[in-house]
């Protein structure tokens, strides 16, 4: 094998064509609403981790489970990167009419890019939180919230943090 690029081979690199059954595809017996996506801090040093919280509310009539998914998108990068990357997920049971506040950590190493070695770069990033991938079209409605954060400092090797 001579071509090691992942272009066109995984959901992260399909370009404009979406996979038939993307990660998180499926139906639910109830409906969920996402709200209050908070990224802390909104501006962080290049080696720091990001804290994320989001509220998931079961707005339907049935107790059910939801797989909450977090995706990261680089707004600019010195090397080619995926459209977005899954950085966290959690299956959560929520009773009908109830809500759950979820907390996640997005580690600095999850923002690393490959440029002859793993590197962390400053810049702007978008984090998505929801029950599906960003922009996914499904029969069952599911919200995907988004918020941006910035990374400051100078680019450095991941092992230098």
Explain the overall architecture.
- InterPro entries: Cellulose_deg_GH3, Fn3-like, Glyco_hydro_3_C_sf, Ig-like_fold.
- Pfam families: Fn3-like.
- Residues 66-133 form the Fibronectin type III-like domain.
- This protein is mainly β and 161 residues long.
- The protein has one domain (32-160): Sandwich (Immunoglobulin-like).
- It contains no helices and 11 strands.
- The chain has a 5-stranded mixed sheet, with no helix packed on it. A 3-stranded antiparallel sheet has the order 1-3-6, with no helix packed on it. Strands 7-8-11 form a 3-stranded antiparallel sheet, with no helix packed on it.
- The mean pLDDT is 87.
List the helices and strands and how they pair.
Blueprint: E1 32-40, E2 43-45, E3 50-58, E4 64-74, E5 85-94, E6 99-106, E7 113-114, E8 118-120, E9 123-130, E10 144-152, E11 156-157
Parallel strand pairs: 2-10
Antiparallel strand pairs: 1-3, 3-6, 4-5, 4-9, 7-8, 8-11, 9-10
């Amino acid at each position: 094998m001579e071509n090691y690029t992942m272009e066109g081979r995984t959901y992260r690199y399909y370009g404009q064509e979406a996979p038939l059954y993307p990660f998180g595809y499926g139906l639910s017996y109830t409906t969920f609403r996402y709200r209050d996506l908070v990224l802390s801090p909104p501006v962080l040093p290049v080696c720091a981790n990001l804290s994320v919280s989001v509220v998931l509310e079961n707005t339907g009539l049935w107790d059910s489970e939801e797989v909450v998914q977090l995706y990261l998108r680089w707004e600019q990068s010195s090397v080619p990167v995926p459209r977005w990357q899954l950085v966290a997920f959690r299956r959560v049971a929520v009773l009908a009419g109830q809500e759950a506040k979820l907390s996640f950590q997005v580690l600095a190493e999850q923002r690393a890019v490959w440029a002859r070695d793993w590197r962390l770069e400053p810049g702007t990033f978008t984090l998505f939180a929801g029950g599906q991938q960003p922009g996914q079209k499904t029969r069952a409605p599911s919200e995907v919230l988004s918020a941006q954060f910035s990374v400051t400092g100078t680019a450095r090797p991941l092992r230098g943090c």
